[in-house]
Design a protein that fits this description.
Blueprint: H1 3-16, E1 23-24, H2 25-31, H3 39-54, E2 58-62, E3 65-68, H4 76-89, H5 96-103, H6 107-119, E4 123-129, E5 132-137, H7 139-143, H8 159-174, H9 180-203
Antiparallel strand pairs: 1-3, 2-3, 4-5
Helix pairs in contact: 1-8, 4-5, 5-6, 8-9
Length: 204
């Protein structure tokens, strides 16, 4: 099961459950882009839901309905200590995906952590394989036993936009779309997404 997909699942569940709201299979399907006839994708999502239930991140409330529980393994140190051991043990030419697979950490979390490690001199780039950036550890990494962590917990750079998408999903599925207040919220979340990507386009 790909760790980046599990990370997307956690992000969707965390956002949909904001304010202590329960979440449903239907909401998770919609947030993950699985349409009514997308049987294969829905099957994969159900397996991820089962994995999150086993990990204690989703608490069963009723059939197809859950509470999201932020589990301790989402904290930086426990999540990345195994990944750090994998970095130190890896041969030159490893990728963020390789370390995520070996450590069972979320790929997107490892990818953000790699940017920190590179900026601090713990890893260096060593070419590419297709579109994948490859790395090697440095002598500084080999001399460092404690897991290097940034001063603040790693945050998804698109967390705000992902939350906006999840809120849109909730509104479209649960709210009266003819209500002015609902329309105002939809426009607000759409602007959040548009502003981010229009800004990115201007900068490139």
């Amino acid at each position: 099961m790909k760790t980046d997909k599990m990370d997307q699942m956690r992000t969707a569940c965390r956002t949909l459950s904001k304010g202590g709201k329960t979440i449903t299979n239907a909401q998770i399907y919609a947030a993950m882009g699985a349409g009514p006839n997308d049987t294969k994708r829905r099957d994969r999502i159900r397996k991820r839901i089962t994995s999150l239930r086993k990990a204690g991140a989703l608490k069963w409330v009723a059939r197809g309905e859950y509470e999201y529980v932020e589990t301790e393994d989402r904290r930086d140190a426990p999540l990345l200590s195994k990944a750090w051991r994998a970095v130190k043990a890896a041969k030159s030419g490893f990728s963020a995906q390789d370390i995520a697979r070996r450590s069972d950490a979320d790929y997107s979390h490892v990818s953000r952590w790699f940017r920190f490690l590179e900026s601090e001199g713990f890893i260096l780039r060593q070419g590419r394989k297709g579109n994948t950036i490859l790395y090697r550890s440095t002598p500084l990494a080999q001399q460092t036993s404690e897991t290097p962590l940034p001063s603040t917990e790693l945050r998804d750079p698109f967390a705000t936009e992902r939350e906006a998408v999840c809120e849109l999903t909730r509104l479209f599925m649960l709210s009266d779309l003819y209500q002015p207040s609902t329309k105002t919220k939809i426009l607000k979340y759409c602007r959040t997404i548009m502003d981010r990507f229009e800004k990115n386009q201007e900068e490139t």
